[in-house]
């Protein structure tokens, strides 16, 4: 007679499963089912959230303001200014600008973490595209609602424009202090020249770094109001450019020691 082999030891798993109360078995099944559902919900949210935000961005975009940006008399094209001008801004404001889709998850996560630790809005985590969205269509109120709108508009702008176009618009709408908006107004105000000039009259690396210092605090780092503070911030920008290999150590040192002439306040009304 053939017999099925019977293990000498007791199969613990089978024994425990057989001896487990029905209520416990049902609980385990329900828990696994809920876990799978939760996972699917999270995955769907991760996929759909950017799509929904991008579509929603259309609602908060003022098409007239957007169309008027490039019609300004002081508008300067990216190709009309020295490369080190826009490179200084990218280095200090958003060095992953060319890689992210309008929102930098790394920078945003870090900013949120710092804000949570400090219990206040300390870091914004805004990319160049997000800053463009805020300057064109939103206020500077530090609220979660504004941040969501900023993200949604930035995602939409990235769908419409190239990185070059976005950076160009950013440089032409950012606030530089003293009532001056855009690189086309800032360069004449601070240095008495045009952003489009070439040769000996072109914007220097030292001047570009000083201009790139201003978005963080236009009045605080204004070379008109506080030269020492402006120089300190300029050094931060130049060090960052060197760290990212945008410039080398020698270029950084020369720019820090560069003689920069700020237009005397007697020649203009300082706001």
From TrEMBL:
Q: Which InterPro entries match?
A: Glyco_trans_51 (IPR001264), Glycosyltr_51/Transpeptidase (IPR050396), Lysozyme-like_dom_sf (IPR023346), PBP_transglycosylase (IPR036950)
UniProt-listed Pfam families: Transgly
Lineage of source species: Bacteria, Bacillati, Bacillota, Bacilli, Bacillales
Question: Per the UniProt entry, what are the Gene Ontology biological process annotations, in alphabetical order?
Answer: cell wall organization; peptidoglycan biosynthetic process; regulation of cell shape
Q: What is this protein called?
A: Penicillin-binding protein
In which pathway does this enzyme or protein participate? Cell wall biogenesis; peptidoglycan biosynthesis
Give the Glycosyl transferase family domain ranges: 67-241
Q: Which UniProt keywords apply?
A: Cell shape, Cell wall biogenesis/degradation, Membrane, Peptidoglycan synthesis, Transferase, Transmembrane, Transmembrane helix
Q: Where are the bilayer-spanning segments?
A: 35-55
The record's subcellular locations are: Membrane
Alphabetized SUPFAM superfamilies for the sequence: Lysozyme-like (SSF53955)
**GO terms for molecular function, please?**
peptidoglycan glycosyltransferase activity
User: Quick one: signal sequence residues?
Assistant: none
Kindly list the GO CC terms recorded for this protein.
Answer: membrane
